[in-house]
Amino acid sequence: MDFNVKKLASDAGVFFSRAMQFTEEKLGQAEKTELDAHFENLMARADCTKNWTEKILRQTEVLLQPNLSARVEEFLYEKLDRKVPSRVTNGELLAQYMTEAANDFGPGTPYGKTLIKVGETQRRLGAAERDFIQSASINFLTPLRNFLEGDWRTITKERRTLQNCRLDLDACKARLKKAKAAEAKAAAVPDFQETRPRNYVLSASASAAEHELRLTQTEFDRQAEVTRLLLEGISSTHVNHLRCLHEFVESQTNYYAQCYQYMLDLQKQLGRFSGTFVGNAESTSPPAAAASPPAAAAATLPAVPTIPVVPTIVGVPSAVAEGVLNPNEVKPPASGTRKARVLYDYEAADSTELALLADEMITVYSLPGMDPDWLIGERGNQKGKVPVTYLELLS
Question: CB of 144 within 8 A of CB of 51?
Fold first, then answer.
């Protein structure tokens, strides 16, 4: 094993000199070379960038993966340079449970049909969440992590080197100051008894200290310039992180827009088939007295006179059968219509329904034998069926 004693002794001497200089500075017994204000501002800005980047990175990881054990597992896989196994999202797991429950209850029952539809929507929501997490991880988390593990480590290393150069420079200044003081003192009281004058020895010592100071000052200036360039690169880092932030917002916007659209589609499906489910419900259906508040409110609306009946379908008058009634042929009652405020946007499924816009006011009334979950709505010359759950009935 090669062992350089001289190098070890030199390194130990440098370490001891730096430690002594650092200690004396802390105790106020030594002078310290101060960096210019611009350089100090650059370092403060870099430290601020590092601290906030860490906090944003950690909290974004929590947002994308709230499960702590899952985050630890992903961290270990990343450090071991292994591919993270695919994990089922909560929405996909819920969809699986709903589908299995529907098969047990009977996919042909109203509850089973609804479970299947909701489960399919949850599956689509889970897939959208998976795509969003992957996009956010690539476009936002990875650049932040690369900065902390790459650029910031380089900056930290160069700043540590600059700190050592400054300690060496201040130690050289202290040694030169002591040599100059000793030379001046010896020049004032020369010692004629020695073969070599003491002031000559001290003068040589001061010259060596001056030479060492020039070398140390050059090394400090070079390292300060290198560190300054790295710190000024923080501005480029901000520009890059700003671009990544825009991509993160775009991904999140697309994700929530997808979720909103999926839920709107599900809401329309459930509203469209709610009458069929109620009609098919057997003894498990609640009695009419236990109807939901919107349905009960619809039941109190005045009914229009009986309209002509077209040929019947399976014993049910077609004028009131689902999908046969033509609201455009129905005239509103002379009195008893009510105003209603639309709560949500609604897209008409066919020509018998009326499309709605949130917060608009329409006139509503019911027809004899009509499904209690639906009303006839009028807006100007437009008329059609509207779901009660989308309305707030006004007195």
Answer: no
